Every structure is written in C-alpha cells, then in structure tokens.
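so my prof wants the structure for this chain in the tokens format not the other one, which i didnt know existed until like an hour ago. anyway here's the sequence
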Amino acid sequence: MAAIPVIDLSGALAPGGPRSAEVAAQLRAAAMASGFFYVRHHGVPADQVARQFALARRLLEDVPAATREALDMRHSPTMRGYENLGAQTLDADARPDLKESFYCGMAYPADHPYVVAGHQTYGHNQWPAEVPEAPAACEAYIQAMLALSRRLMQLLALSLHLPETYFDATSESPMVTLRMIRYPAHPEGADERTFGAGAHTDWGAVTILAQDAHGGLEVQTPEGDWVPATPMEGCFVVNLGDMIPRWTNGLYHSNPHRVRNLHSGGAARWSIPFFYEPDYFARIEAVPGTVPEGEAPRFAPCTAGEHLVEMYRRSYGLKQQAAAA
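here's what i got, hopefully its the right format
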C-alpha cells in the first residue's frame, strides 16, 4: 500500500483552503513517483457513487442485446454508447480485453461550436429507452467528477509552484468521458496474455476511478513492480494521464496500469472511471519552472486535441506492427 499514497482532501477542496499547500506537496510527491494516489474526503457523496454503480448494472445487465447492438459505440461519431466484450485491446501484445462498457460524455448543446465542428468527444450521447433515468444521473455524476477534476488541477498547479488558477482557463469546455465497466471473472487456466484491461497509460490529464470491493486494478511502480490498488472505502483512485508529463516536461509521471479480475470469487468486477481532459484547444507545453536553464523542452508544444490525435495514431501504429508480426 505504501506505493500508492492516500491523500486527504479535507481543508483543501476550495481555493485558498487551509490545507491546500500541504495537499499540494503530497500531490507533488505522488506525481513524481507513480502518478497514482487515493483521495478521501473528496466531497462526492457516497450515495451518489452507489447510485452510479446501480445504474451501471442496469445499463450493462438489463438492457436487451438488440438495443445494445443498435447503440454500439461503433455507430457513434463521438464513440459513445456500448462497447462489447473483447472490443478493445489496450495492450497490443495481449489478448483482447475481457470487459464490456458503456460510454457517455458531457451534454454539450448541439449548437456548441466544438459540437458543430465535430471535435473529439464533443457531441451526442446514445441512451437506451429502457433506462430513462440514465441521462440525468450520468450528467449529475459527470458534473461532480468535473468539479473534483478542476480542483485537482488547481492543486497540481500549486504543487508546481504556480498560481492556483494557472490551469483554470484550460477547462472552460473540457473533453470528458464517463465509462461504466463490467469485468467478468478471470477465466480459469488463462495465460499470461489475458487481462480484463491490458497494461496502458491514460491519454488525458486526470482519471478518477470508483471501483467496487473486489479489486483487480494493478499499478506499475517506478521500479517496474506491479502492485494492487486495493479498494478503500470512501476513496477514489486518481491517476495522471499522458498530458501531465507533457505539461511538466516529464517531472510528473503517467504510469502503466492493468486489470485482472482475480479476487471476486467468480463474480463480475465493476468500475467507473472518469477521464478529464482539458479544452480541445488548450495549449499543452512545459509550464514555467520545469525546463532546466539552457535545455530544450522534452516535448513539442501542442493542443490537447492534437495530443489526442497523436495518441490515436500511435496506438493504431502499434496495432499495425502487432498484426504484421
């Protein structure tokens, strides 16, 4: 457990909070290690999280197969809706991931300029008529996660010895994704290339994960060891995505993680990750104080949107190499 620190956000949830500097220092230490940490006293009510898990079960267990096929994310220009078991392979060297998902995002209006332009993650959601409460419940959960993400970005700014509001302008029209995931039990006799989710890093800025009591998430430490991110009641697991090393010139880390549902006694594992990414046109470049004098930045400046395009292309290239091998 020592590999993944627990950070108490009490007294640091509002700008200027009395513990903000202390929490920022703890974030800095975690970010310079694995980029993973737990947060407790995060301000999101436990009953809201419990309702979201109940909704996930309705979406992924109660909706007829024909409806799920009609709302498959393959049919969505914004990649929202249902994702079938084995549809994603996060690790190009592993077997297809043993998980199924439902994706949604913020309810931006149809006339928002980014929606009109068709930018990544901006656009309509797909909802099953069988779960009429889903749109409002998911939007409420997204707003709670977005508020926490914005606060974590402010604390990250403080951790970099920047003004607390340094990143605020980058979150005006953020790219966000809410994903509800069901992992079946790990197959008996499965080989070492079988995972619920293969080893990967997240592409965005901050991921906030709610997980059930079964566990199964594993995090790679800076030393290369894999350690369990054991569920802790009342806590989220937070990890930094690949935009953060670009923003910090490699000072802060985005480490690989994976999932194996080994500890559920044959039951399904459920998790709800929220992926926060800044505004499509947010500038991602080394922040002041992270590039040593006389050295060039390790990463070329880009926008958040350009970063995502690069990551999709890189991922596609890896799959092409794997297919040719």
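also thought this was worth mentioning. Residues 316-325 have pLDDT under 50 and may be disordered.
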